[in-house]
Specification:
Layout (H helix, E strand, L loop, with lengths): L2 H14 L1 E7 L3 E6 L7 E11 L3 E7 L2 E2 L4 E3 L4 E5 L5 E2 L7 E5 L5 E10 L2
Antiparallel strand pairs: 1-10, 2-9, 3-7, 3-8, 3-10, 4-5, 4-6, 4-9
Length: about 120
Protein backbone atom coordinates (compact mmCIF):
# COMPACT_ATOMS: atom_id res chain seq x y z
CA UNK A 1 0.00 0.00 0.00
CA UNK A 2 1.41 3.37 -1.00
CA UNK A 3 1.62 6.30 1.40
CA UNK A 4 -1.16 8.09 -0.51
CA UNK A 5 -3.42 5.01 -0.24
CA UNK A 6 -2.67 4.76 3.48
CA UNK A 7 -3.54 8.43 4.02
CA UNK A 8 -6.83 7.97 2.12
CA UNK A 9 -7.68 4.88 4.19
CA UNK A 10 -6.96 6.66 7.49
CA UNK A 11 -9.07 9.66 6.42
CA UNK A 12 -11.96 7.31 5.61
CA UNK A 13 -11.65 5.56 8.97
CA UNK A 14 -11.41 8.85 10.88
CA UNK A 15 -14.56 10.09 9.15
CA UNK A 16 -16.48 6.99 10.26
CA UNK A 17 -15.41 6.84 13.92
CA UNK A 18 -18.25 7.16 16.38
CA UNK A 19 -17.97 7.87 20.11
CA UNK A 20 -20.27 5.93 22.40
CA UNK A 21 -20.69 6.83 26.09
CA UNK A 22 -20.15 4.13 28.73
CA UNK A 23 -22.16 4.31 31.95
CA UNK A 24 -22.30 0.96 33.73
CA UNK A 25 -22.90 0.07 37.36
CA UNK A 26 -23.98 -3.58 37.37
CA UNK A 27 -21.96 -6.78 37.52
CA UNK A 28 -21.70 -9.07 34.49
CA UNK A 29 -21.92 -8.38 30.77
CA UNK A 30 -23.38 -5.07 29.70
CA UNK A 31 -23.79 -4.04 26.07
CA UNK A 32 -21.40 -1.18 25.36
CA UNK A 33 -22.24 -1.07 21.65
CA UNK A 34 -25.00 -2.92 19.86
CA UNK A 35 -24.14 -3.85 16.27
CA UNK A 36 -27.37 -3.27 14.38
CA UNK A 37 -27.21 -5.90 11.61
CA UNK A 38 -25.73 -9.31 10.90
CA UNK A 39 -22.76 -8.95 8.57
CA UNK A 40 -21.37 -5.99 10.50
CA UNK A 41 -18.29 -5.92 12.73
CA UNK A 42 -17.03 -3.37 15.25
CA UNK A 43 -13.45 -2.10 15.42
CA UNK A 44 -12.39 -0.24 18.56
CA UNK A 45 -9.75 2.47 18.16
CA UNK A 46 -9.72 3.78 21.71
CA UNK A 47 -11.44 4.08 25.04
CA UNK A 48 -11.35 6.14 28.26
CA UNK A 49 -12.83 4.62 31.42
CA UNK A 50 -12.92 5.55 35.10
CA UNK A 51 -14.07 3.34 37.99
CA UNK A 52 -15.68 4.65 41.18
CA UNK A 53 -14.32 1.75 43.26
CA UNK A 54 -12.30 -1.46 42.95
CA UNK A 55 -13.55 -3.55 40.02
CA UNK A 56 -12.17 -5.74 37.24
CA UNK A 57 -13.32 -5.39 33.65
CA UNK A 58 -13.10 -7.44 30.46
CA UNK A 59 -14.03 -6.40 26.90
CA UNK A 60 -16.00 -9.06 24.98
CA UNK A 61 -17.20 -9.71 21.44
CA UNK A 62 -20.47 -11.54 21.97
CA UNK A 63 -19.50 -14.25 24.48
CA UNK A 64 -15.79 -14.24 23.56
CA UNK A 65 -13.30 -12.34 25.74
CA UNK A 66 -11.16 -9.88 23.76
CA UNK A 67 -8.96 -8.94 26.71
CA UNK A 68 -7.79 -10.50 29.90
CA UNK A 69 -9.09 -9.21 33.21
CA UNK A 70 -8.18 -5.53 33.69
CA UNK A 71 -8.17 -4.47 37.36
CA UNK A 72 -9.21 -0.90 38.22
CA UNK A 73 -8.74 1.00 41.48
CA UNK A 74 -11.04 3.70 42.90
CA UNK A 75 -10.82 6.79 40.67
CA UNK A 76 -8.34 5.15 38.32
CA UNK A 77 -8.54 6.15 34.67
CA UNK A 78 -7.58 3.76 31.89
CA UNK A 79 -6.94 5.26 28.46
CA UNK A 80 -5.99 3.36 25.31
CA UNK A 81 -5.83 4.83 21.77
CA UNK A 82 -4.28 3.88 18.45
CA UNK A 83 -4.68 4.64 14.75
CA UNK A 84 -5.35 0.96 14.06
CA UNK A 85 -8.06 -1.18 15.70
CA UNK A 86 -7.10 -2.37 19.17
CA UNK A 87 -10.17 -4.63 19.51
CA UNK A 88 -12.31 -6.18 16.77
CA UNK A 89 -15.58 -8.10 16.67
CA UNK A 90 -14.97 -11.83 16.37
CA UNK A 91 -18.19 -12.84 14.59
CA UNK A 92 -20.61 -11.07 12.29
CA UNK A 93 -23.22 -9.16 14.28
CA UNK A 94 -21.46 -9.53 17.66
CA UNK A 95 -22.13 -6.72 20.13
CA UNK A 96 -19.31 -5.15 22.13
CA UNK A 97 -19.71 -5.96 25.83
CA UNK A 98 -18.01 -4.54 28.91
CA UNK A 99 -18.03 -7.17 31.67
CA UNK A 100 -17.65 -5.93 35.26
CA UNK A 101 -16.73 -8.14 38.21
CA UNK A 102 -18.97 -6.18 40.59
CA UNK A 103 -21.71 -3.57 40.83
CA UNK A 104 -19.39 -0.56 40.58
CA UNK A 105 -19.90 2.59 38.55
CA UNK A 106 -17.65 2.67 35.48
CA UNK A 107 -18.03 5.63 33.16
CA UNK A 108 -16.30 6.89 30.03
CA UNK A 109 -16.49 6.38 26.30
CA UNK A 110 -15.28 4.20 23.44
CA UNK A 111 -14.28 5.22 19.88
CA UNK A 112 -15.11 2.68 17.18
CA UNK A 113 -16.30 2.00 13.68
CA UNK A 114 -19.00 -0.41 12.52
CA UNK A 115 -18.48 -1.85 9.07
CA UNK A 116 -18.98 -4.86 6.85
CA UNK A 117 -15.27 -5.70 7.02
Amino acid sequence: MSLAELKDRLATIAGNIITVPINRASAGDGTAVQVIQPGQFFSVYGFWLQAADVVSMTWKSGGTSLTGVIPLSPGQVITVFDNVPILKGRSSGDDLFLNLSGAVSVQGWVNLTISKV
